[in-house]
Specification:
Layout lengths: L2 E6 L3 H6 L5 E5 L9 E8 L2 E15 L9 E8 L3
Length: 81
């Protein structure tokens, strides 16, 4: 298990934090794996704003028609604070 610190912009940050956005489309340059943790950092106006939350990766989709090579879709669930 690895923790990935990722910058997330509005409105996606709050949609995910509130549990309505349960997926992430990301470049797979960090080699995400199921059970890894995403630490979302609110990124706005060119800098990290201080708000954050955690999600667990529950599913990873790669190599699918229509998905650009080197990218993945991650199924995620919020980790209660």
């Amino acid at each position: 298990m690895k923790i990935h610190h990722i910058k997330t912009i509005m409105p996606f940050f709050y949609e995910a934090k509130q549990g309505r956005k349960t997926f992430e489309l990301r470049k797979d340059d960090r080699h995400y794996q199921v059970n890894d943790i995403l630490h979302h950092l609110l990124f706005d106006d060119g800098q990290i704003q201080g708000d954050s939350f955690y999600q667990k990766i529950t599913y990873k989709l790669t190599c699918f028609d229509g998905l650009t090579e080197g990218y993945c879709i991650l199924g995620v669930e919020n980790i209660p604070e």
